[in-house]
Design goal:
alpha/beta, 5 helices, single chain
């Protein structure tokens, strides 16, 4: 079934936000630009947190990138079939099926040629979860809180076909401070 936009969900800023419409339909919405999908990289975001959508949308959705959203991990494989994203971004905490379980489902589906091999980034809740991201074969990860510079940098690296991992201070559990002192 083709993607269905949910007109009753309303418009927030420049994008329509939609949740899955039920078991018979997949509902997600185009975010950011209203340009054609030609050579524009496509990003699929799986999160049920509106603030995560806001952060990703602000960092990535523009005339060079199109962002789609699903609210449930269970809908990710079907969404991959429908929109053929260049990058999938999974929130670690998705209500009905967590990011790691969704990542495992993606890798399993790739392994049996059900879906094309897809770059996947996981948005982690804490630095210590980097182990889980690596163990589940994430191509990249970021630790929350998010910011647009880190999101754009990670997406650019992953869209170029490379892996992306943040420098982490595992003692403090924080992203390492990469500021150079003069």
């Amino acid at each position: 079934m083709p993607p269905v936009r949910a007109p009753d969900r309303g418009v927030h800023g420049s994008r329509m936000v939609a949740a899955p419409l039920g078991s018979d339909h997949l509902g997600w919405a185009l975010s950011g630009c209203s340009c054609s999908l030609g050579a524009v990289p496509t990003v699929l975001l799986a999160t049920d947190a509106d603030w995560v959508l806001d952060e990703v949308d602000a960092a990535l959705a523009d005339s060079t990138t199109t962002v789609y959203r699903v609210r449930q991990g269970l809908d990710v494989l079907e969404a991959i079939d429908e929109v053929a994203p260049d990058l999938v971004i999974l929130d670690e905490q998705i209500g009905n099926m967590g990011g790691m379980a969704t990542l495992s489902a993606i890798r399993n589906a790739e392994g049996v040629d059900r879906i094309p091999i897809t770059a996947v980034m996981v948005l982690l809740d804490r630095a210590h979860d980097a182990f889980l991201a690596r163990r589940h074969d994430a191509d990249g990860y970021l630790v929350k809180p998010l910011d647009s510079i880190r999101l754009r940098r990670a997406a650019d690296v992953l869209l170029a076909g490379e892996a992306y991992e943040e420098s982490l201070d595992l003692e403090s559990g924080q992203v390492a401070d990469l500021t150079l002192e003069g």
